[in-house]
Structures are given as structure tokens and as C-alpha cells.
Specification:
The protein is α+β, with helices and mostly antiparallel strands. Helix content is 43%, strand content 18%. It has a 6-stranded antiparallel sheet. Strands 11, 12, 13, 14, 15 and 16 form a 6-stranded mixed sheet that branches. Strands 1-2-4-3 form a 4-stranded antiparallel sheet. A hairpin with a 2-residue loop joins β12 and β13.
Length: 653
């Protein structure tokens, strides 16, 4: 699938729900691409993964989203420069649908790797028609339904009600039958003509003239036997006549079984046939395979002959003689036909020993390729036969060489010749431009990747100072003052190291840093585990809060669970001055606070209020390796499985 479709999905979600929702959907779908490129191929499953992720985020079903994607794809087609092609595809809805099977063929130069579905119209009447859809992709039934509905509204001002009559999915094929209900006034029953204009009842034409006009035509009977083939096809395959067309060719498009009935009932489709046999190219270069020793042997023979005729000629005069090279070149040129290669250069390289041993083998046998024909089928009632009026699908001169087809084999009455020759002249320039664009795209992707890595690094630093929810609000233009909030009920924890000042006296500053670093690494891990926010650290004091900025009714439970883990997790940490276990004090209090961002140079998310002071007093008046809580916190833990002992009255400042 080309990036054109994924780009449309991206635009739809951004316009309908916002960029933040798209980022969430993109992350949930695990899409690795930062930006979709219109002419680049992607996995078909990407759009299905996006639909699934979008359904989880937006609360919509997969069918609803795929239908919406299809509608939006048609709406946005003008932005991609293809609206004019769709407008001229048919005079009315009926003509558009009948021509739908050929739509992707018109885009094959812009999207050469496209794998188009197949559309066939059946059971048509004045109020509806039945459309048969076949595709190698799965999951696009509603996508196509949305496209069909929107085409009627957007291009023909016609409401189309699309029903799904049946759907079959196999490992290799999806087959869906749509019924399209609309005002099909353009439909006319095609009855056979009873009368013909005078003087035109018979238009005699010699068989040779007809097959000269259509050199790649085939006429076959109901049993699929070919009894007439065009002159151009005879040049490529001389033994086709009398064989069955479905045994010698594969039906590429439409995606139907190759039978008389299927062809007869789908005469309004374009047909593509692929030969099962490869073309035996007649463009061969008959170059003798010379070994590197042959020029030396020739030199010795000529030298012996000349010594007999002229004894006075020295050996040095014959070595490197220009006559030998000229003679060798003449021999190669006379033995080679006009294959379009620089035979003189090849011969010179062979004489001098600089030619590849396999190069002449490549010239003798050009790569072989099957013949790919495209055209239409017509029923001829007088013969009770079908005639295929086709032309080869040839994109480059190289393909012609591989097929053994020449320009004069092609039709004079269409643009086949001009397309091939003009396309060959422009292909080099287009390929160069494409290579440059791909190189620029690769560089851009690398820059975007590095930018994304730097952004993640910057976000990580920002979230270390400010909670993510608050930082995201600041990004949207909210001022620091507007981030201030009153939180009526939160729980705050303070902790410090017992006898920290005495420990610092007996150890070096680096040991102090190492000791605190080990403690804080453990506490930081616990803060993430218990969903609490680390406010700050000052010397040995460590402060966390629950209920800010994300409110929760279980703030006291989260803080107390963390406090218990803090006591049990430092039993392996030693006092560097004595070697004994480090002891900490923990104080907890619950109440109301005001929180907000403070500062410009190094902004911090700070808490203010008497609750902060009281929590600090609980810690400073606590006991080593004990958790000191206030009455307010105890009230939050009523009827919970915590063991709480009353300490009694103490003096607190």
C-alpha cells in the first residue's frame, strides 16, 4: 500500500480529533513512521492497525472508522492532484462504476507497484446495479463502501445507498458483492440492432488487412480454441494457432476464472493476458567466444609465416604491431551482427585481456520475459466467437529486447509507440530525480529521528522538574500562575537520615554524595512503584506527595505503603563512618495544599501550606526506623490492614 492512503488517515484524525489524539493512536498502533511519504510503499496492515487503535481510543467500531477513512479519501483526493481524473472517468455514476476497474491502470505510471483490486458490474437496472469486488487485501470492505458513497455525492450530486450482499474471504482473496441503489437513469437495455443503414449491411475486409491493423489480436471459439491470431503475435509465438487460449495465457485482469462465460458477461472490462511461456528473443549477438591465448597463437603463426618470407624482419617489430589489433578487430566485426553493442570495443578488450569472460554469453542470450497483453474482448455473433483486441504492455526499450518485439510490430492507430519511445527518453531523468528525492527523504528521516530523540531527552529533563500533566498545560500556552491549584486533601511524606551531621563529620564529601545517591536511587524507584510524586530533596531530606497533581482518594494509602517499603529497602545500606546499617526517620501528614510552578530559570513544582510544615514536624520529631503519622492521616487509614500504635502527646513547634 502506498503512503497516499496512510497520509489521508493521518489528515482525517488530525482534522477531526486533533493532533494529540493522533499521537495517542500512533503510539497505541506502534507505528514506527514519523511521516508517511505519498509514493512510498508500506505494509497493508498499517491502516488496519490504525483503525483498531483509533477504535480503542475513540470508542468507535472498526467498520465505522474504515467507512469514514474511505469517505475522507475521496474528499481529499483533490489535494493530491487526482480529482480531475476522477471527474472525467464517466459522464454519470453508471459510467464511472463501469470504468472503475480501469482506474488504477491510469495511475500505474505514478504508482507502478500498485496491486489494484478488480471491479465487475452485473445485474444492472434503472434503480441499481450490482458491483463485484475482488482483492488480495483483507479488511477493506467498508473502506470501499465509503468511497463509493462519497463519489456519488461529490462528483455527481447523487445519493448512493450501498449494501453488502455477500462477503467471502479466503487466504488469498476477498470477494464482496455490493448493491448500489441510486437513480440509474443512464441505463439502457442493449438490444441487438434489427435494422442497419442502407448500404452498410456488409463491409467486406480481407483477413490480412484486419490482422495487420490488430497485430496482437486473438479469435477463439466457445471451447477456447484459437483459430486466428494476429501477425505480431505470430512473430512472437509461431505455434499458437489451434491451441486453447486459457492454456497458453493467464487472465491477469479482471480477477476471474479464464472461461468463456466469465469473459462474455464482463465485456465492458479491460482484459490483461500474460503468456505462460517466455518469449524466445530473436535479438541475439553471434560473437565467437575467443580465449585470451588466441591472439598470442595468431601472433606466433603470422610471425613464422613472415620469417619464411622475409628473414630480415626482427621479432621486436612484430610485437605490439598495429596490424595485429586491426586484424583482430576486423575478424570480430565480420563475425558479429548488428546487435546495438560496441563490438569493436569488446573485441579490443578481449585482445588486451580486459574483457569479462561472461560478457559475450550475456549478449548471446538476453533475459527472457513473458508477453503481457492488454485490450478488450468483443463478441462477434456471425462467427459465434470472441475476439481479443490487444496490445503489448511494454514500458521500456529493454522490455522490447527481452520480448523480441519491435516498434513496427505495435499498432499504428494508438499511442503505444510514442509512449515507449518517449518514456525511454525521460526515464533516466525521472530516475535521477527520484533517486535524489529518496536521498533527501532518507536524510530528512534521519534528522527527524535525531530531533525526536532530542525531544524525548528534553521531555525527560522537564518531567523531572515538573509533572507531565502540568508541563503539557504549559506547552499549550497556559501561564505559570494559571497552573496553581488548591488540593483539599493530599498526603505528604518527609524522611531524613538519623545522625546525618555526625556521619558527615567522619567521612569525605565524596562519600557523603555516594551515600545519598544510593539512598535516593532506592527511594526514586519506590516513588514510581507507588504512583507518588517526588517534590524535592534537600541534603538528606526526601519529600514526596500523593494526590498531587493527579487526585486520588487513596493518597494516604499510597504514601504509607511507600513508607513501609522505604524502611525495608535500606537494610542493606551501611553507614560509611561505622559500618552499621543506615537508619531513617519518616513523618507523614494529610491535609490541604496549594501547588504550582515557581521560577523562570529553573522552574519547580512546589507545595505550599500548613500541611507541608506539619509533615516536616512529624519527621523531625520522629524515631529512627519508625513511621510517625498524624491524627489526620490515621483517620484516612481507619478499617484498613495497617498496624498503628498511639505514641502519646509530644511537644511540636
Amino acid at each position: 500500500m502506498y503512503g497516499l492512503y496512510l497520509e489521508a488517515v493521518n489528515d482525517y484524525i488530525n482534522e477531526s480529533y486533533g493532533e494529540d489524539v493522533w499521537r495517542l493512536i500512533e503510539a497505541r498502533a506502534e507505528i514506527p513512521h514519523l511521516k508517511f511519504v505519498r509514493h512510498q510503499m508500506y505494509n497493508d496492515n498499517l491502516i488496519l492497525r490504525l483503525a483498531k487503535a483509533a477504535g480503542e481510543v475513540l470508542g468507535k467500531t472498526h467498520d465505522e472508522l474504515m467507512y469514514a477513512f474511505g469517505v475522507y479519501m475521496v474528499k481529499r483526493i483533490g489535494n493530491y492532484g487526482y480529482e480531475r481524473i476522477l471527474k472525467v472517468l464517466g459522464r454519470n455514476v453508471r459510467d464511472f462504476i463501469n470504468e472503475l476497474d480501469n482506474l488504477h491502470e491510469y495511475f500505474r505510471f505514478s504508482f507502478p507497484k500498485v496491486q489494484p483490486p478488480s471491479f465487475c458490474v452485473e445485474e444492472e437496472c434503472e434503480t441499481s446495479l450490482t458491483l463485484h469486488y475482488r482483492s488480495t487485501r483483507k479488511g477493506f470492505t467498508q473502506f470501499v463502501k465509503g468511497q463509493l458513497s462519497q463519489v456519488g455525492r461529490q462528483f455527481y450530486n447523487t445519493d448512493i445507498e450501498v449494501e453488502i450482499l455477500s462477503k467471502e474471504e479466503t487466504e488469498k482473496m476477498t470477494y464482496v458483492v455490493y448493491k448500489m441503489n441510486f437513480d440509474n437513469a443512464a441505463f439502457k437495455h442493449r438490444m441487438p440492432q434489427q435494422k442497419t443503414a442502407p448500404g452498410y449491411e456488409k463491409l467486406p475486409m480481407k483477413r490480412g488487412i484486419f490482422f495487420d491493423m490488430f497485430p496482437f489480436s486473438v479469435i477463439f471459439r466457445r471451447d477456447m480454441t484459437m483459430y486466428r491470431i494476429g501477425d505480431g503475435l505470430k512473430e512472437v509465438f509461431s505455434d499458437l494457432q489451434g491451441k486453447k487460449v486459457n492454456e497458453e495465457f493467464t487472465l491477469v485482469r479482471p480477477m476471474l476464472e479464464f472461461s468463456w462465460d466469465n469473459i462474455y458477461f464482463h465485456l465492458n472490462n479491460v482484459f490483461e493476458l500474460m503468456s505462460k511461456a517466455v518469449v524466445e528473443s530473436k535479438q541475439k549477438v553471434n560473437i565467437p567466444k575467443l580465449s585470451k591465448e588466441e591472439p598470442e597463437e595468431k601472433e606466433e603463426n603470422e610471425k613464422a609465416k613472415r620469417e619464411e618470407e622475409r628473414d630480415t624482419m626482427s621479432v621486436e617489430e612484430m610485437k605490439g604491431s598495429d596490424q595485429e589489433y586491426s586484424s583482430a578487430l576486423t575478424q570480430y566485426n565480420s563475425s558479429a551482427n548488428s546487435g546495438g553493442e560496441d563490438i569493436e570495443l569488446l573485441a579490443f578488450q578481449t585482445v588486451t585481456g580486459k574483457c569479462s569472460e561472461t560478457i559475450f554469453e550475456d549478449l548471446r542470450e538476453p533475459p527472457k520475459k513473458p508477453l503481457h497483453l492488454k485490450g478488450q474482448m468483443k463478441y462477434v455473433p456471425q462467427w459465434d466467437s470472441l475476439i481479443f483486441l490487444g496490445t503489448p504492455i511494454i514500458e521500456t526499450v529493454e522490455d522490447m529486447i527481452k520480448m523480441g518485439v519491435y516498434v513496427n510490430d505495435l499498432n499504428l492507430h494508438d499511442s503505444s509507440r510514442e509512449l515507449i519511445l518517449a518514456g525511454t527518453q525521460q526515464s533516466a531523468e525521472l530516475q535521477l530525480a527520484l533517486d535524489q528525492e529518496q536521498q533527501k527523504y532518507a536524510q530528512l528521516q534521519e534528522i527527524i529521528k535525531k530531533l525526536d530523540e532530542e525531544k524525548k531527552r528534553g521531555d525527560s529533563l522537564l518531567y523531572a522538574m515538573i509533572p507531565k500533566a502540568v508541563a503539557d498545560r504549559l506547552r499549550k500556552g497556559i501561564t505559570a500562575l494559571e497552573t496553581c491549584q488548591v488540593f483539599p486533601d493530599v498526603t505528604i511524606l518527609f524522611s531524613d537520615v538519623v545522625k546525618f551531621n555526625e556521619i558527615c563529620i567522619h567521612i569525605t564529601p565524596m562519600q557523603v554524595v555516594d551515600m545519598l545517591n544510593e539512598i535516593y536511587i532506592v527511594f526514586d524507584t519506590l516513588s514510581e512503584k507507588h504512583n507518588v510524586y517526588k517534590v524535592e530533596t534537600i541534603r538528606d531530606a526526601y519529600m514526596v506527595v500523593a494526590g498531587v497533581p493527579n487526585k486520588t482518594t487513596f493518597h494516604a494509602h499510597h504514601i504509607c505503603d511507600m513508607a513501609l517499603d522505604m524502611l525495608s529497602s535500606i537494610d542493606h545500606l551501611k553507614d560509611p563512618s561505622t559500618g552499621d546499617n543506615i537508619q531513617i526517620r519518616v513523618g507523614i501528614h494529610s491535609g490541604m495544599v496549594v501547588a504550582g510552578v515557581v521560577g523562570l530559570k529553573m522552574p519547580r513544582y512546589c507545595l505550599f501550606g500548613d500541611t507541608v510544615n506539619t509533615a516536616s514536624r512529624m519527621e523531625s520529631n520522629g524515631v529512627g526506623m519508625q513511621i510517625h503519622i498524624s491524627q489526620t492521616t490515621k483517620d484516612h487509614l481507619e478499617h484498613e490492614p495497617y498496624i498503628i500504635e498511639e505514641r502519646g502527646k509530644i511537644f511540636v513547634k
